[in-house]
């Protein structure tokens, strides 16, 4: 059986954003993405939070704007991990994570590497600290599922020339096998510089273009995508693939090569094909 993972409700595609630094421009960006039903992860440094509204970053009191999206760690003081000894990397991750968990009252399991600076030591420390994924900044320009989530590279940055063309390709293609994952990252302050192209009108344009395809695209945060993919891996199959058991608490979907129909395996249930 040539099975492939399908996203919730049998969809073949997922789209996610990741924005860094907790900048004041996140407020306007969130208004836009909420209007279009899009989801983002926001990566925060709890050690460099604004003390007043005159600061370019947000104050903790303003963090309620992230409701409905994911918040993830970005290092307590936005450090270069490769330049620090293990104890300091441990501090930067665990202090950021602990303060975020205390403030938001949630379990925080995601990370974006400041400057995309990742090395083997940092990945191990992240993992030991209970962080399940770490995002880099090297564009893949494809829609593949990452093999190593502790070095999760994005499809592209929103300011790349190829971005709009990638959206067309993503929306027009109907994957026959592996599902598509489109991952876009950036900083919301880039829209505030009022450049000729990378400005708020451009932000609104690409959000409008990518949105509205709920029938075929799952708009989700980074951790929702990570969790779905890792839950899917817990499906149990008989040798011939005709009996499938879902031992998890999440409904899961599979599809077959070249077929648009999907099969739902409800949480906790066994199906026979
Ligand atoms: Zn940053």
Structural features, described:
The protein has 273 residues and is α/β, with parallel strands linked by helices. The protein has 2 domains: 13-232, TIM Barrel; 237-272, no CATH class. 27% of the residues lie in helices and 21% in strands. The chain has helices spanning 26-35, 86-104, 120-128, 163-172, 189-192, 200-210, 222-232, and strands spanning 3-6, 13-20, 40-44, 70-73, 110-112, 133-135, 156-157, 180-186, 217-219, 236-237, 243-245, 252-256, 262-265, 270-272. The strands form 4 sheets. Strands 2, 3, 4, 7, 8 and 9 form a 6-stranded parallel sheet that branches. Helix 2 crosses helix 3. The mean pLDDT is 97. Bound molecules: zinc ion. The site of zinc ion has 5 residues, from loops. Residues 20-21, 74, 78, 114 line the site of zinc ion (ZN).
Question: What keywords describe this structure?
Answer:
single chain, 273 residues, alpha/beta, TIM Barrel, 2 domains, six-stranded parallel β-sheet, three-stranded antiparallel β-sheet, 27% helix, binds zinc ion
Instruction: List the ligand species.
Output: zinc ion
**Structural domain count:** 2
Structural class: alpha/beta
The residue-averaged pLDDT reads 97
The CATH class label of the largest domain is Alpha Beta
Output the CATH topology of the largest domain: TIM Barrel
CATH architecture of the largest domain: Alpha-Beta Barrel
CATH superfamily heading of the largest domain: Glycoside hydrolase/deacetylase
Question: Could you give the order of the helices and strands?
Answer: EEHEEHEHEEHEHHEHEEEEE
Low-confidence stretches: none
Global geometry:
globular
Strand content: 15-25%
- How many individual β-strands? 14
Largest sheet descriptor: 6 strands, parallel
């Amino acid at each position: 059986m040539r099975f492939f993972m399908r996203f919730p409700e049998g969809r073949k595609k997922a789209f996610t954003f990741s924005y860094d630094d907790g900048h004041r421009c996140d407020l306007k960006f969130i208004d836009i993405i909420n209007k279009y039903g899009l989801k983002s992860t926001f990566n925060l440094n709890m050690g460099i939070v604004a003390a007043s509204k005159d600061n370019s970053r947000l104050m903790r009191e303003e963090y309620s704007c992230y409701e409905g999206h994911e918040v993830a760690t970005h290092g307590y003081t936005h450090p270069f991990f490769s330049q620090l000894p293990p104890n300091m990397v441990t501090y930067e991750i665990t202090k950021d994570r602990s303060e975020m968990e205390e403030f938001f009252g949630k379990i925080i399991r995601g990370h974006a590497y400041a400057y995309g600076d990742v090395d083997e030591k940092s990945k191990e420390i992240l993992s030991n600290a209970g962080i399940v994924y770490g995002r880099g900044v090297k564009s893949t320009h494809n829609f593949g599922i990452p093999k190593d989530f502790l070095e999760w590279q994005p499809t592209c940055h929103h300011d790349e020339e190829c971005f709009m063309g990638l959206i067309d390709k993503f929306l027009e293609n109907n994957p026959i096998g592996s599902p598509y994952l489109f991952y876009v990252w950036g900083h919301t302050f880039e829209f505030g510089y009022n450049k000729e192209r990378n400005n708020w009108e451009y932000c609104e344009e690409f959000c409008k273009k990518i949105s509205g395809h709920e029938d075929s695209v799952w708009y989700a945060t980074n951790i929702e995508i990570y969790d779905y993919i890792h839950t899917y891996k817990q499906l149990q199959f008989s040798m011939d693939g005709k009996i499938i058991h879902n031992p998890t608490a999440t409904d899961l979907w599979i599809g077959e090569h070249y077929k648009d129909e999907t099969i739902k395996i409800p949480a906790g249930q066994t199906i026979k094909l």
